[in-house]
Amino acid sequence: AGPAAARRYELWLEEGGARCDAVNVVPAGDAERFALVTSRAVAEGSTLFEVPASMLLTADVALRDRTIGRDLSRIEQQQRQRGGASAADRTGCETIALAA
User: Fold this and answer.
1) Residue 100 has pLDDT above 50, yes or no
2) What is the 3-state secondary structure (H, E, C) of the chain?
3) Residue of 19, 23, 20 lying closest to 40 (CA atoms)
4) Distances from the Cα of 73 to the Cα of 65, 85, 87, angstroms
5) Cα-Cα-Cα-Cα dihedral of 95, 97, 99, 100, to 10°?
6) What is the pLDDT of residue 43?
7) Which residues does residue 27 pair with via DSSP β-bridges, in sequence order?
8) Is residue 10 a contact partner of residue 25, using CB atoms and an 8 Å limit?
9) b (16+ CB within 10 A) / e for 19-48
10) How many Cβ atoms sit within 10 Å of the Cβ of residue 93?
11) Comparing C-alpha atoms, which of 28, 3, 1, 23 is closest to residue 13?
């Protein structure tokens, strides 16, 4: 993830309503990650950024996606068949959704 990709991600966050006044998105040193760094001096306890709930990726949001949802539903069904989590208990699905 280079500087241009980091800037596109930063613009996407801002367009979605995120407030990132105190941070910048920068490449994290490899091709797949970004990091947040402060863009100015901040006082202890200050809010660095705010992301609206509409931009958060949760298991429910991921499950509604046509492609990711299909795959996650299949994984969830396999867990239940193996005696894992019930349909109401999505323990572990949040991590899968974020990794997807």
Assistant:
1) no
2) CCHHHHHHHHHHHHHCCCECCCEEEEECCCCCCEEEEECCCCCCCCCCCECCHHHCCCHHHHHHCHHHHHHHHHHHHHHHHCCCCCCCCCCCHHHHHHHC
3) 23
4) 11, 12, 10
5) 160
6) 93
7) 34
8) yes
9) ebebbebbbeeeeeeeeeeeeeeeeeeeee
10) 20
11) 23
Position 94, amino acid: E
Q: Which residue in the block uniquely carries the two structure tokens 């402060």?
A: 38
Amino acid at 21: D
- What would the pLDDT profile of 26-73 be if each residue is shown by its tens digit? 988 776 788 889 999 999 999 999 988 888 877 777 777 787 778 877
The pLDDT, as a whole number, for residue 90 is: 54
Q: What is the pLDDT of residue 87?
A: 53
What is the spatial distance between Cα 74 and Cα 57, in angstroms, rounded to a whole number?
A: 19
**Per-residue pLDDT, 85:** 56
